[in-house]
Amino acid sequence: MTIDMDIVNLTLGIVGTIAGLFSLFVHLWRLKRESPQLTIGVLKCEHMFTEETKILTFGTEIELRNLGDRGTNILGIDLKFKNGDEYQNLRLASQELAKENDNVKWIRPHETIRTSQTGFIKYEHPVTQELDCIITVYHTHGAEKIKHKSLKQTHN
Does domain 38-152 have CATH number 3.30.70.890? Predict the structure, then answer.
């Protein structure tokens, strides 16, 4: 009885290819399943315009919820606002006293945190009562965006 080595090599090649593809599929599935899945809830988003200094100030309070099985670092939060036709970008700064790694905040798996952010920009145009905003949270594994309306803060 002779064994045809071409058929053995072909069979082993097919089995190896199938095993490799299956392993890759399992790895990608685990990576997707275990990656952080951030959801953003906007608790407060207000703006105030000071006419004398032409400064537009934003104050936000957001809730970040990690629904995934892996933690992630929050690298920064941006706010884009639209007053008229075009969006303008504004970097928000944290108001918490306890910062981890200089503005980097760690969110554990299945954890929810609240953070207050403020930012200001020199702005020459009059501001409406309501501004369309896009809040972007940058983290280790990507970025998440949410649209929201900022309401003009009334003076006390």
Answer: no
